[in-house]
């Protein structure tokens, strides 16, 4: 059975989830037939699939590696290094589990660093570019790392509101080692968030997002020049939008990317984006927690210990806190929030009830056509920051419903399987207002989900859009 302490099970689960969602034909009994090769698979049902078996006249177990090979036979012409990436992810999970100490005392840090399994619908969620564990474990959130940044001194390029001392460029020691550079070690420690390359500086209450020349999931995590130049003008657009949302929904907060600083000689490689910290936005008596951490589980998870009625109230409150600000951003302001599990923090009160939502990482946001003037100014190179209303709504449904709420609901239902949590969610969506797109969502049999395996197969960038339909839990059957 899949668990968060078994690298074989975690890897198999990710591959099974991808096959069921993107490739296989799923029968009523839960078996999965691969249409091209005719291979028939079955797995233990549950929140996530586990314990795969293949039918060859009788059922027998299949390993994660054998499952990966079946994928290459089914889809054909695998991307270069595909099997190595899966093996690397598996090895990374084993290394993380072997090096993991006791969790930190701070609940927020604990939630950010809880993601041993990572993205449950990606074939290689914990790949680290094939590098030896000794190179990246000191900077790994999964082992509750803390480390000091390196400070470079000189003349640097700023754009936006960058609250850093003049003449100093903070740098990630892992990236510096990849670039063969060095500098002066800072005096205080930071710790990595779930995204690996973004760290939190508790002393300054700021986040720093660095370039990292390592492939994690689909992309090398470098801060590309066209993305960097998008950040300051986007921040100017978003500040009044966020102010309006926060006044409409008190407690909603936005950890805005203020701007960036970098070296003119190594513009992308040494770039750092400076983001608002979480503490300055946290209400008194509230503890921020990463939504993905709540889904994955950690010691101190507010879902633990709730009875049936408490869990139902908790989920209704969670949806009420997280969803309306996202819908308001879309319908009132034409802003498509990238509100997936790792981009949303939820603040809980002393009783563990959700009372606040924090949204972050605005680089991935998209704007609807009403922002044509800004888009023509900074997106004239044919980029994808501007989207039609239909494409923006598709993206939002994936981030909010398939990626986010389905996983939070799954965590609740894993504890209380008979709860009708989706009736609570439907009520929140329906109460937001009368909008044709919202009505169509509630009346649709399916919602879009990102096809990470197929995107990897087509060598697409991680930001590319390719979706498959999955059953819509918001659809009312009766």
UniProtKB/TrEMBL annotation:
* Spans traversing the lipid bilayer: none
Aerobactin siderophore biosynthesis IucA/IucC-like C-terminal domain boundaries:
313-460
Gene3D superfamilies for the chain: 1.10.510.40, 6.10.250.3370
Q: Please state the pathway this protein functions in, per its UniProt record.
A: Siderophore biosynthesis
Instruction: Offer one Pfam family short name for this entry.
Output: FhuF
On the tree of life, the source organism's domain of life is: Bacteria
Chain ranges of the Aerobactin siderophore biosynthesis IucA/IucC N-terminal domain: 108-151, 186-292
**What are the boundaries of the signal sequence?**
none
Q: According to its UniProt record, which protein family does this protein belong to?
A: Belongs to the IucA/IucC family.
Q: What is this protein called?
A: Iron transporter
